[in-house]
Amino acid sequence: MKIKRALLSVSDKTGIVDLAKALHSSGIEIVSTGGTMKALQKAGIPVLYVSDVTGFPEIMDGRVKTLNPYIHGGILAVRDNPEHQKAMQEHSIIGIDMVVVNLYPFRETIARADVSLAEAIENIDIGGPAMIRAAAKNFKYVTVVVNPDHYSEIAAMVKKGEVAATFRMKLAQEAFKHTAEYDDCIQSYLDSKIEK
Question: Which of 107, 115, 140, 155 could share a disulfide with 22, CB 3.0–4.6 Å?
């Protein structure tokens, strides 16, 4: 499947500008969130703000920004299902063919000796894992990327026309592993804070 729209939202900005340049030069529309969007704009890359897609501002200190049917409908739509296509048309949902997300640095945050429970809690990513899992579930149609080490490989595939189906499945497996490890880190940390 040809990628037409990609959503980029990363805490670790390593390599994201180069990937975005490659996506843009291949004619892919880029949607992004706060910090990532600013980094891309600073590099002169055209980007569509996620709030312009959702019609709703980022709220609650950024806790709610991508949890929206315009995002998740765009990610989860089964492209060859007529009912899904009909719903997309009726609700003006545009497909999102690539999701590039890495998560709030929870492990790094809790590694600090002075971190408070409240600060740790604020570094639990919600929208990121939701988008990653949605994209990974729909890997038949959506490329999910959680590891910056894949950016140059992805850029090369996109330049040739598409990301291979077998590679999309590999990326989906890696994505589910990533969110599982992230959740395990959170539950382990919370367990350590519970008085036994």
Answer: 155
Grade residue 165 by pLDDT with cuts at 50, 70 and 90: very high
Q: 3-state class of 43 per DSSP?
A: coil
Segment 34-51 shows an average pLDDT of 94
Total Cβ atoms within 10 A of residue 156: 11
**Could you tell me the end-to-end alpha-carbon distance of the chain, in angstroms, rounded to an integer?**
52
Residue 100 phi, psi dihedral angles, 5° rounding: -115, 105
**Confidence (pLDDT) at 163:** 92
Whether residue 93 contacts residue 73, with contact meaning beta carbons closer than 8 Å, is answered with yes
Domain borders along the chain are 5-193
d(CA 68, CA 54): 7
Residue 114 CB partners (closer than 8 Å, separation 6+): none
Token pair belonging to 27:
């004619």
pTM (2 d.p.): 0.93
CATH of 5-193, one of 3.80.10.10, 3.40.50.1380, 3.40.50.280, 3.90.180.10: 3.40.50.1380
In total, the chain counts a number of residues equal to: 196
